[in-house]
Amino acid sequence: MHEKTPSKAQYKRVLLKLSGEALMGSRDYGLESEIVDRVATEIKSVIEMGVEVCVVIGGGNIFRGVSGAAHGMDRATADYMGMLATVINALAMQNALEKAGVPTRVQSAIPMSSICEPYIRRRAMRHMEKGRVVLFAAGTGNPFFTTDSAAALRASEMQCDALLKATKVDGVYSADPAKDKSAVRYDKLSYLDVLSRDLQVMDTSAISLARQSNIPILVFSIFAHGAFADVMQGKGKFTIIS
Prior knowledge:
Number of helices: 8
Largest sheet: 9 strands, mixed
Distance between the termini: 33 Å
CATH class: Alpha Beta
Radius of gyration: 17 Å
Strand order of the largest sheet: 4-3-5-2-1-6-10-11-9
């Protein structure tokens, strides 16, 4: 159990959604251990504030279901392969967190009893109450749903106060800031703004589910040091969708 320091954290329980691509660093695919370790440190700093944290990681650094389907592979098969990729990422993140002294549990939507727990909602909540980080692997366990949808689903099931989407940029822009220099950054958006303007933050089913459960989505850059802890206190650069 961690020493919990009194904090100015604005949320008691949050879900962090990490893209698989965020863990690649400068590589073309796979995992860069320095990035994984640094993300683990960011999560630890938030746990030490007394916040309960659960995590959903994508699998795009290893396998992208949609691109697999585009190359003539059956979409369901491609998505299952993507789910297995998220389990690899969850185990890597578990290893990094435990090296940093943070107790964790991996729960997979596809049962894999040799390497992790099956997803059991009440057990996951109990783990978080005890100060453990729960990593939800294998998406929703169903093809045709992204890990964004899995993040919104688990955030709703865990009764999280917020869903944090960690990306490569410091918020939501009107266009890709890497490609379009005139892209405008937003501080605040409504769920309907995101849907009507087709802003590519998360897929529409994830946004709709967050809206239905009234869970705010905070978009920030995982590459800014201390950003996760800052966002928890309402500081730093981020976009809030509510």
